[in-house]
Write a structure and sequence with these properties.
single chain; 4 helices; alpha+beta
Length: about 190
């Protein structure tokens, strides 16, 4: 059986959408400094990095400034219960079926896929963690500007229960710790 990181990501999105009311905001390009996906349920946020398989997890260390991964781990592993790595593995019981596994990002604690949203952080705590986490990350050569702040366009989030899509400016979300993100009703789309 062969699969890729995107296979894991798509399977996660499909399985998450079936579980209930939540918002999924995939990240791309320089915005992926934070991770592959920010998800929320009941105003609590989680951060997810997708990997093809367990052996791919070690490549995360390459995303940090030289020598800073261990420092970041020491500083953040006690508060990473909302930051996850999701990876795939072929089922032993049902060959040819891909199953997802989840572990916390730095501490490596195994977490049930069904329970990841219960450990989400309130927006203020999520911001504090994210700001600290980004301090250690490498800035890609393609990124413009001179800092670790990220400039975002509009990102769509889809509510799996109502089918509504909303656009949220993540520029405000990442750059302004004192403001709470809001969804402007004029930006809400009905599906």
């Amino acid at each position: 059986m062969k699969w890729w990181e995107k296979t894991v990501e798509y399977l996660f999105v499909i399985q998450s959408a079936l579980t209930g009311k939540l918002n999924l905001s995939p990240l791309d390009g320089t915005h992926e400094l934070a991770g592959d996906l920010i998800a929320s349920e009941n105003s609590k946020f989680i951060l997810i990095e997708f990997k093809c398989d367990y052996s791919s997890i070690s490549t995360e260390k390459d995303k940090f400034e030289d020598g800073t991964y261990e420092t970041a781990k020491l500083k953040l592993e006690r508060c990473d219960d909302h930051h996850f790595i999701v990876y795939g593995k072929e089922s032993n019981e049902l060959p040819g079926q891909l199953i997802l596994f989840v572990q916390t990002y730095f501490s490596g604690n195994e977490v049930s896929l069904k329970n990841i949203y219960s450990s989400g952080k309130e927006i203020d705590s999520f911001h504090i963690y994210l700001k600290e986490y980004l301090r250690f990350k490498k800035i890609p050569a393609t990124a413009s500007g001179g800092g670790r702040s990220l400039s975002f366009a509009m990102v769509a989030a889809v509510d799996s229960e109502t089918g509504q899509a909303s656009s949220i400016s993540l520029d405000e979300y990442f750059l302004s710790l004192s403001l709470r993100p809001t969804i402007n009703k004029s930006m809400t789309l009905s599906m």
